């Protein structure tokens, strides 16, 4: 077992035992914070697939997170208020809402990626941001779904015998989904798909000379990344029991980029470490001052200057996942 895998296994065990430790210390409120860390970690893992391994800097990934969240919110809304969404009746069933959130976000990412990948560099960054802002303003202009104020979920998604209304159960659902995608991502990165993405990132001209269709691989990665971000959005809607255009805002896209950089770009487990560090710093610094970003900035600068592989690189102590 490699050192990185051993450290990740220790982290997994720590997360699995966390609710019991929180209960023993009368800190059950911290389980909600840990769930948020896992949700942000899942979204950051999705972004890191295209950023760290594909070299594609997307500044609009909040669009997919928000799309997934709104699918859950709108279906819940119609379940209690009547009506339908594009002919689909409302429902609170997680077995329907979550897959639909993944499909909608994946389809949205496929459409945006098909256009955005015609560009590169700064133009790619700006066009992903432009699409995200278009979707942001679209949902602001929908008063039936709360407009700028957003809307509350009547209840969390229904998974039958699995009561995710219980914060501990919801925490373990988040943990299982993060673990599942991490394992999937590890297989993808180690397969031809991942090596091709990294080749396109490092030397696109050589890959083109070898006859590799860079567009096809990058589009597939972008769509998968968007679909998983949509799953994170569905979880976020359930965790907050609220959906608003802030889930689509460029601020969230920026936070996800910061998390990936903080944890380690192009590392397998770094985005999760980055999400834990980011939200823990936010929580602790907010106890001191409302201007907590003022202190986060210097920390991020130090990480970029002295830890090129992020916090995970410091923990791991050597290159390679």
Secondary-structure topology with pairs:
Blueprint: H1 3-24, H2 29-51, H3 62-81, E1 84-85, E2 88-89, H4 94-116, H5 121-140, E3 151-152, H6 167-190, H7 192-202, H8 204-209, H9 214-240, E4 242-243, H10 250-263, H11 270-286, H12 293-306, H13 310-316
Antiparallel strand pairs: 1-2, 3-4
Helix pairs in contact: 1-2, 1-6, 2-6, 2-9, 2-10, 2-11, 3-4, 3-9, 4-9, 6-7, 7-9, 10-11, 10-13, 11-13
| Element order: H for helix, E for strand | HHHEEHHEHHHHEHHHH
How large is the share of residues in beta strands? under 5%
Rounded to the nearest angstrom, the distance between the terminal CA atoms is 11 Å
Give the averaged pLDDT, no decimals. 89
Helix fraction bin: over 70%
Number of helical regions: 13
What kind of sheet is the major sheet?
A: 2 strands, antiparallel
Radius of gyration from the alpha-carbon trace, in angstroms: 19 Å
């Amino acid at each position: 077992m490699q050192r990185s895998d051993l450290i990740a296994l220790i982290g997994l065990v720590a997360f699995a035992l966390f609710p019991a430790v929180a209960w023993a210390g009368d800190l059950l409120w911290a389980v909600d914070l840990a769930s948020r860390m896992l949700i942000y970690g899942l979204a950051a893992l999705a972004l890191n697939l295209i950023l760290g391994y594909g070299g594609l800097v997307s500044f609009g990934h909040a669009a997919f997170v928000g799309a997934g969240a709104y699918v859950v919110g709108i279906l819940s809304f119609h379940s209690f208020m009547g009506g339908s969404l594009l002919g689909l009746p409302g429902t609170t069933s997680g077995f329907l809402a979550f897959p639909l959130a993944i499909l909608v976000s994946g389809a949205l990412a496929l459409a945006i990626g098909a256009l955005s990948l015609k560009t590169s560099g700064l133009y790619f960054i700006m066009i992903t941001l432009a699409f995200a802002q278009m979707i942001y303003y679209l949902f602001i202009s929908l008063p039936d779904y709360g407009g700028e104020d957003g809307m509350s979920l009547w209840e969390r998604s229904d998974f039958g015998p699995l009561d995710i209304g219980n914060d501990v159960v919801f925490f373990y659902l988040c943990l299982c989904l993060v673990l599942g995608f991490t394992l999937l991502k590890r297989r993808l990165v180690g397969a031809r798909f991942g090596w091709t993405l990294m080749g396109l990132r490092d030397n696109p001209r050589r890959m083109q000379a070898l006859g590799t269709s860079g567009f096809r691989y990058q589009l597939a990665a972008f769509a998968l990344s968007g679909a998983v971000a949509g799953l994170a959005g569905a979880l976020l809607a359930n965790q907050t029991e609220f959906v608003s255009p802030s889930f689509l805002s460029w601020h969230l896209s920026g936070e996800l980029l910061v998390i990936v950089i903080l944890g380690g770009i192009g590392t397998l487990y770094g985005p999760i470490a980055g999400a834990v560090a980011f939200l823990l710093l936010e929580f602790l610094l907010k106890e001191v001052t409302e201007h907590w970003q003022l202190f986060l900035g210097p920390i991020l600068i130090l990480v970029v200057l002295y830890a090129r592989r992020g916090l995970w690189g410091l923990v791991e102590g050597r290159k390679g996942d």
